[in-house]
AcrR family transcriptional regulator
Amino acid sequence: MARAGLTPARIIDAAADLADKDGFESVSMSAVARLFEVKDASLYAHVRSLHELRSGVAVLSLAELADQVGAALAGRAGHDALIAFANAYRAYATRHPGRYAATQMTLEPDVAEHSAAARHAAMTRAILRGYALNEPDETDAVRLLHATFHGFVLLERGGGFSRGARSSSASWERVLDALHTTLSNWPSS
């Protein structure tokens, strides 16, 4: 029976898969209910609202991303850590476009506090320790990395780099080299 075994975790996993297949914006209670061949009302016994469902996908996705980045960072420091972090980030966004979109969702403070968002932020700051930045420069550098990685991923996914003879992977490598140079020579305030 399709109804058997509905749990919040199964529902969120199905919503995450749907997000990767059809886009995060396509995640709705009706679409997920159709996957389980149940009525929308059946989901509300496990997930209170669409916002809670999408937040669940975001929390799941942040954990997956943090796990992949953490595994890539193991034993690395400085330039190598920057490259490993960036490549894991880009690979996750490429393999899981809907989940990646969910990671950009603004979570309620109590949800964010218990999610992997804090772990992800700590890993970003950890790779910056190799560049000996103090506050407020470290915060500015975190924002630079996020803006660069996120912007590149969005442009690449949207076909923004499809024209031209140079591959986006070659440009990505040069961008990472430029970030390393920038972080190594951070201008003093």
